TrEMBL record:
SUPFAM superfamilies: Nucleotide-diphospho-sugar transferases, RmlC-like cupins
Keyword Transferase belongs to the record: yes
Stretches the record annotates as Disordered: 442-463
Name of protein: Mannose-1-phosphate guanylyltransferase
Amino acid sequence: MKIVLLSGGSGRRLWPLSNAARSKQFLRILRNPHGEMESMVQRVWRQLGAAGLKDQCTIVTGTLQADTIRRQLGDEVQLLVEPESRDTYPAIALAAAYLHSVRRVAADEAVIVLPVDPYVDDLFFEKLKELETMLSRTSADLGLVGVTPTYPSTKYGYIVPEVSEDAEASGFSEAAEGARAYGRVASFHEKPAEAVASRLIEERKALWNCGVFAFRLGYMAERIRQAGLPFQYEKLIEDYRRLPKTSFDFEVVETCGNIAMMVYDGYWKDLGTWNTLTEEMGVAQIGKGTVSPDSRNTHLINEIHIPVTVLGLSNIVVAVSPDGILVTDKEASPRLKELLEGVQSPMYVEYDWGTSRVLDYERIDENNEIVTTRLTVAAGKRTDAECAPKRETVWTIVSGRGEALLDGVSQAVGRGSVLRISAKQQVSFEAFEDSELIEIQTGSPSREEGAQRRSYPLGSAVI
């Protein structure tokens, strides 16, 4: 059995802490069993390790998130980086081709796909091991995991099981304690309207889809070839833009007539909005600030050095980061994505070598701007060579020491050193000890220049 974890999306419902480079799964706002703060992806990785499944995992992600995953999970994690973000169907197709061509996985081996950030108990990962058995006993092409809904949500897909008084006729197998373990699926509905969701729950005993997909590798090979696409990994990378930009639910699940499902009765929750996330944080305040005692059920998360005071406000979330400030009623927080328009360049990004935080941004005129950024570089790490074709750059070493490489020429630098970098010059920095740099760039208003300081080759498998 192989496991594919999908890590994508910008997590705009958790703005301003999440952005294109640091999605919701990377926010360290949960407590682990030792009382330390951890992110959703660190929690899932820890649980997979406890279930003995870590070595079977491949994480599919985009270029902006690859460094953050390595920083949080370590260099041993196996990453597959998409050529571009095209939703879950292309990501799963690429992972399947990679397992076939690079890992030489057999066509009859089961592949389990799940999001990288489910908030579940440890039992969930033990149940995943049963999916391969379910595929064998039901001869299904696809396997899903369903959980009993608590309200008619419009955010989830719904699995409608076949219902029959005869468990065998309905395709259900009996668990040891007599409860239904798994069975056939009558239909699948992806994110229906609230009225439809209510009817599905009441009349057809529908379950929430947990976002888990199980299939034999050969089944995905057949689906990809039927679409006129190559199943060889390198060729699929070249043709990646030909893949429809759509979800696996729409492209595969809703068009498959042979689906089985497993019922999961344990704890499962989507932490995709501020109101659900704060229910599981275990702490009401992170960062500088004060929350008055009469501010009940209020959470403050502050990532900047300026203190924030909350006085006499209950049932709210105050989130502060370099990307912006959010003050929201908890019940209203799911509407945040609807309110945000456009794509803002991330002001804070984590890399495997350190961090980048925009301190100040000033637009001088249509052709010029000044961007001041604080860079931290960990000891023994090196930033990749970067070039700003339309910007003049000044680096000031605030602390630490290391080696700057400017157009191939090495220069030892330390605290107080100032390095002037002309437009089109390539520069990188290797830290001999933990170092901090202040970078001031002046020139073109194209903020995309220099925003992505390090990335893996597009479409590469990082092993």
